[in-house]
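User: Predict the structure for this protein chain, please.
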Amino acid sequence: MPDQEIEQRLFTIEEANAYIPLLERQLAEMRELRDRMEGLRELVEPVLARAHLNSGSRAAADFAAALHRFQAMSERIAEEGIVLRDVATGLLDFPSWRDGRVVCLCWLSGEPAVEHWHETDSGFAGRQKLGDLDEDAFGAAKSAADEV
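Assistant: Here is the predicted structure, written as structure tokens:
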């Protein structure tokens, strides 16, 4: 692997499922922040259009605080190696390893556990049920030494 490549975190089904309670709470808060920003947008846009950098309004400050919190939460999810696809629906992917390639364990807010997966290039449309697949079929990449 070249030095400039960033090592991607790969999740087992169990590891992905362990994140679900926290992610449900974070997504709910992110949706509230998004709704707050939408509500403030009408108040903020005229202020921003005529404001100087050192002046503003309470609505602009509230908007900026909500935006900062939203961005920080999104970054924290990404830092864990989880891919946030859509806040509104709560669509997330957990990179995983299956049959010698990276795939995505796919979770949608409201689902009790990770129940689907898809190829990295097929997205939501390519979601497949985990079904009776052995949980050991997904996980971290195995080195040649692990195979022996």
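Residues 13-50 form the longest helix (38 residues).
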